[in-house]
Amino acid sequence: MTSKTNNTPFIVSLNSSKVLEYFRDRELTNKQIHDLEKAEKKLTSGIYFAGKFISSPSPQEKAVFMANQLAMALDEDNEAALAISCAYLATRYPDLKQLKLTNHEGQLSIELINDKEFSDQVPIKFIARKDLT
Hints:
By secondary structure, the chain is of the alpha+beta class.
């Protein structure tokens, strides 16, 4: 792993609002690189995923696991876990453009998006027909 990555920012959104932006063009410190290597080593040794232990997780399983870790860290306001999980996703998955978290009635959905950059949602204002003329 190099200390630099590509320029496309990695965005984390919650309920359509941007909550984190990771700038990939910034240099990582030696400690950050070490922490990411340590996280990779732990993941490679196996993870608990969907209630079962996976001894050799695939890259996709690792990404989903780290996305879940990021969501939990966000909910618990755990800055250290938030930083490592966000940096892991941004540096290990350079095509990943956004992590979309949606909380609906206490259920959290997680979507890893590779093909579309984040854009702020703009509310649509409807104009009554009578006001058009």
